[in-house]
Input
Amino acid sequence: MVIIDFFKAIFDDIKAFFSAELNFGGPIVSGSIIIWAIIAGFAIAAVVCLYNRLLIGRFVSYLIRGGADLPEKALPLSASGVSNFFIRRALSSNSLLSKLVITEDTDKADIMKRRYYIPEKNLQRAQKLYVKNGASPFSVIISFVLLIILAAIAYIALPELIQMAENFAAMIKGGSN
Output
C-alpha cells in the first residue's frame, strides 16, 4: 500500500509541476522532483551502460574474436550482425569508438563496406570499456528495482527529516538567545 501511495504522490507531483504556473520568485525544486531526477539520471545511465555492453560491445567482440588487430585482418561492418544506425553513428562521428576502432577505408562512402580493426595498442582499452566488466541486463534491472525501493523510502522519510532539521534549527536558534 505504501508503494502505491508513493507512485500516486509522485504522479500528483508531476501533474502539479506541469500544470502549475511557474513562480520565478520562489523555489521550484521539491524533494519529490529531486527524487525523480535521481531516478531519471539512473535510468539514462543504465541505458547508456546497456548500449555500450550490448550493441557496441558485440561489435568490439566481433573484431576481437575475428583477430582484427592489423589492417590486413580488418573485418567489414556488414558481417558483424550489429550494423544498425547506432553503430554506424558511433563509427562515423568523433566518438571514443571511432578512436579505438580504426578503418583504412576512409575513401569508401558507404560505411557498411568499410573494414575495421582494433590496433594492439587500443585492444585492452576497448575490452575494458565495451566487453569486460559491463553491466548485464539482469544487474541493471536489479539496481533499478533497488533504486525505486530506496526512492520510495526517501520519499516517505524526506518530509520527516526536513521537519526534524527545522525543529533542530529552531531549537539551536531559540537556545542561543
Summary: Residues 22-26 have pLDDT under 50 and may be disordered. The two ends are 45 Å apart (CA to CA).
